[in-house]
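Lines hold sequence, tokenised fold; shown next:
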Amino acid sequence: MSTDVSSRAKALDLGLLTLRTAVGATLFAHGAQKLTGWFGGPGIEATASGMNQMGFKPAKLSAVTAGVSEAAGGLVALGAGTRVASAAGAAAMIAAADVHRPNGFFAQNGGLEYPAILGVASAALALTGPGRYSLDGKMGHRLERDGVGVAALAAATAGAVAVLYRRKKVTAAA
């Protein structure tokens, strides 16, 4: 029986490592594109210009916030501050999904599919934590209490909703 529980725990931790690495690396790359222009990205000035066109005001602050929220995915991939960093990624993807919402669901039509999946996966990591195979796990999960993920996700979601409400007012006035 203990071998079965141990096998399940190891499988769960490997699953979280796999999910964390894929989601975290993807978010990090997108954040780095926005902030620095790495990986063929636009960099902060062009990102701010795009944010302005999408109705995010103030545009430069919005660009920096989106970039940092996504770049925190690097922490997710490492399993460091996973619950808070994942919540930040989820909030960025809420906003991104809303931008793509008018195009429907599917990514091939410019829809919200891609940011929605990244956002849901980020939210799941905020709620579950990183698993044992992580920097948080190596530190004994001292910074990863169960309520931290729920609180971080609630705060990040509230922030995203406030930003989208402001965007809606700006675009309606234009």
User: Anything to note?
Assistant: Residues 2-173 form one domain. The chain has a mean pLDDT of 94. The two ends are 64 Å apart (CA to CA). Residues 56 and 174 are 12 Å apart (CA to CA).
